[in-house]
């Protein structure tokens, strides 16, 4: 399975999760894109924390800085090509819907595990690189 197909499958599982909630079926594709982008931001933020720890520097992240805006804009460009430019993602949703239930269930557990792993990775990186002054406020 290619990286592109895995990326669309990650989107698909969150898309189906939001489709399962009957009361919030509007903009399910946008919600799934936001969740996928959140996971990508977790990854980038934790990489920044690891960089700070390994380089022994205390970098500050300001939203209006090259260090934040460039990756954010790159993520938006990827989302535009993958989801907003055309409706190619709908073909992937139809294809994944045809998969056997057992394969989709296994894929769902893998997606949940990957999501939990990246969230735990974010928490661990924040533990290694606490904000100036520590966590007590």
Question: Please, could you describe this protein's structure?
Answer:
This protein has 137 residues and is an all-alpha fold. It contains 5 helices and no strands. α1 packs across α4 (88-97). The radius of gyration is 17 Å and the shape is elongated. It starts with a helix and ends in a 9-residue tail after the last helix. The model has no long low-confidence stretch (mean pLDDT 85).
What is the count of β-strands? 0
Can you tell me the residue ranges where pLDDT is under 50 for at least 5 consecutive residues? none
Distance between the termini: 46 Å
| Tally of DSSP helical segments | 5
Q: What is the residue-mean pLDDT, rounded to a whole number? A: 85
- Percentage of residues in DSSP E strands: under 5%
Could you estimate the helical fraction of the residues in percent?
over 70%
Q: Could you say which structural class the secondary elements and strand pairing correspond to?
A: mainly alpha
């Amino acid at each position: 399975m290619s990286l592109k197909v895995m990326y669309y499958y990650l989107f698909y599982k969150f898309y189906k999760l939001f489709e399962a909630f009957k009361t919030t079926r509007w903009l399910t594709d946008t919600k799934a894109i936001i969740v996928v982008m959140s996971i990508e931001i977790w990854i980038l933020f934790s990489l920044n924390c690891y960089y700070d720890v390994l380089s022994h520097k205390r970098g500050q992240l300001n939203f209006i800085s090259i260090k934040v805006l460039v990756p954010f804009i790159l993520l938006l460009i990827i989302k535009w090509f993958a989801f907003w430019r055309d409706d190619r993602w709908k073909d992937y949703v139809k294809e994944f819907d045809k998969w056997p239930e057992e394969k989709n269930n296994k894929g769902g557990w893998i997606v949940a595990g990957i999501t939990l792993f990246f969230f735990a990775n974010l928490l661990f990186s924040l533990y290694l690189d606490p904000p100036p002054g520590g966590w007590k406020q």
